[in-house]
Amino acid sequence: MFDRYGTARTDPRGRRTVTTVPRDELARRIAGEITLSDDPGATLRKWRTDFDVSQTALAGQLDVSSSVISDYESGRRESPGIGVVRRMVEALLDIDESRGGERIRRYARVISAGFESDIVQDLREYSTSMPLERLYETMDATELVRGDHDEISGHTVINSIEAITRLSSEEFYRLYGQSTSRALIFTGVTRGESPLVALRVVNPTPHAVVLHGLDEEDLWEHAPSLATIDGFSLAIANRDLDDTLEDLRKLP
């Protein structure tokens, strides 16, 4: 029986496999990030808001006053020790589980892929293939080049700056190479040159690439021609990133 936070994959022979990421591993990673942060309060706030948990709800789960959470996050109270951090993280996960565990599953998918959540901001396999147009509508994206495929079976949202500065060439290959029948969405893009050049050394390419954070006049001039040569659809979007990620996570 598979863990409910397992991630399904298809091996080269077409067989479905599942990699499981225990809740304890997710809790350990979050607690470690908060504890080692230069600003633990801000990092705690980031995770709390990402799990869509209010200060009041977290305080209630911990049986403390909401002012305690506020003081930790603002730095008015001394940074919490590892024991307190672990309790807070477990409380966040407990609340998410009580709501169905959607965010735990999301981060389990990212961890299973072998990347940190600040590099891969979302990774989703759809229950069935869907038209590429639906992704564009969700993101308010403008298509500039139509590629060889009209449907996708998932998406990966990648922080382009973090990926470029932190991933090795082998990790880049693994990131792109696992993304054949899906859309790669790059955030924090200024021109689009770096991710598109990196795509050229990987075969096969994804069905679609969306560059988020720029307008058409800012796009690297060779981007459309590269997309045409390699056969993938290319689009741009500049909608608020947090709203975009929230809506992407509602896709099937």
TrEMBL record:
Signal peptide: none annotated. The lineage of its organism: Archaea, Methanobacteriati, Methanobacteriota, Stenosarchaea group, Halobacteria. InterPro entries: Cro/C1-type_HTH, Lambda_DNA-bd_dom_sf, Tscrpt_reg_HTH_MJ1545_prd. Coiled coil: none annotated. GO terms for molecular function: DNA binding. CDD domains: HTH_XRE (cd00093). Residues 44-98 form the HTH cro/C1-type domain. PROSITE patterns: HTH_CROC1 (PS50943). This is Putative transcriptional regulator. Pfam families: HTH_31. SUPFAM superfamilies: lambda repressor-like DNA-binding domains.
